[in-house]
Design brief:
45% of the residues lie in helices and 0% in strands. It is elongated. Helix 2 packs parallel to helix 4. By secondary structure, it is mostly helical. The N and C termini lie far apart (47 Å). It has 3 domains: 93 residues, Ankyrin repeat-containing domain (Serine Threonine Protein Phosphatase 5, Tetratricopeptide repeat, Alpha Horseshoe), CATH 1.25.40; 60 residues, Ankyrin repeat-containing domain (Serine Threonine Protein Phosphatase 5, Tetratricopeptide repeat); 89 residues, Serine Threonine Protein Phosphatase 5, Tetratricopeptide repeat. The longest helix is centred in the N-terminal third of the chain and has 9 residues.
Length: 254
């Protein structure tokens, strides 16, 4: 979870308010309770002039906070392209991964920042990079329901039926989380709507279980399946409805 840092951190004016005898480097070394440096704070706020001043005075662009996030990650989360371009020009690692394995392209995808998705890819970001869960930027865009990010990533040749460690495809993630627009777009792009995760569960059963009736109806209409959503079992949408996860019973089609 990324939380914004206030501009007032440590005074945030170089040389003003520093203890006697301390130079600008003192500001670069200070951290708040979450481990964030003044450079991370400045990048979070998109204060490009302060970012430049701190870097030019020796601020380490690869310093991380307690969660492993760098200034580049914060600039991406809060959509500050000028700050991102400057940090990259100074050698910031575009593939830096925080503790969950998320690189800047993941954060751009999760937040739906189309400008940053294209910027980062143009600068060499790996769109098929995996996090610790086996997820990619596309999987996270689908899971967060940022459909425009899904479109942008697919336009840059991201793998449409990629699977996370639990064998969930972007469609399964989107259906599970209830993102109808994303589900529709993926289906219209030709995803495998019969794909199953490692428990043998398809997108339509995940939608049923989580009471996303609009998605269930759409997937059934698109022939997601009529029976046997789980490998070797009799679990179907109607079983999910009987379990109390929908407000109505879905009749199987003949």
């Amino acid at each position: 979870m990324i939380r914004k840092v206030g501009k007032e951190m440590f005074g945030m004016t170089l040389g003003k308010g520093a203890p006697e005898g301390k130079e600008a480097w003192w500001w670069n070394e200070k951290r708040d309770n979450d481990g964030r440096t003044p450079l991370i704070s400045a990048a979070s706020n998109g204060d490009i002039n302060l970012v430049k001043s701190l870097v030019n005075r020796g601020g380490n662009i690869e310093e991380t906070d307690n969660l492993g996030n760098t200034a580049l990650v914060y600039a991406t989360w809060y959509n500050h392209p000028a700050t991102i371009e400057f940090l990259l020009s100074k050698g910031a690692n575009i593939e830096h991964a925080q503790k969950d394995g998320h690189t800047p392209i993941f954060f751009a995808a999760r937040r739906g920042h189309l400008n940053l998705i294209n910027l980062l890819i143009d600068k060499g970001a790996d769109i098929e990079k995996r996090d610790v869960y086996g997820g990619t930027a596309l999987i996270w865009a689908a899971r967060e329901g940022t459909v425009d990010a899904v479109k942008a990533l697919l336009s840059r040749c991201s793998e449409i039926d990629v699977r996370s460690n639990d064998q969930k495809t972007p469609l399964i993630h989107a259906a599970e989380m209830g993102h109808l627009d994303t589900v529709k777009y993926l289906v219209n792009r030709g995803v495998d709507i019969e794909a199953k995760d490692n428990a043998g569960i398809t997108a339509v059963l995940w939608a049923t279980w989580n009471n996303h009736a609009d998605i269930v109806n759409f997937l059934l209409f698109r022939s997601a399946f009529t029976k046997n959503a789980q490998e070797g079992s009799e679990v179907t949408p109607i079983c999910g409805a009987e379990g109390g996860h929908l407000s109505y019973v879905i009749e199987p089609r003949g």
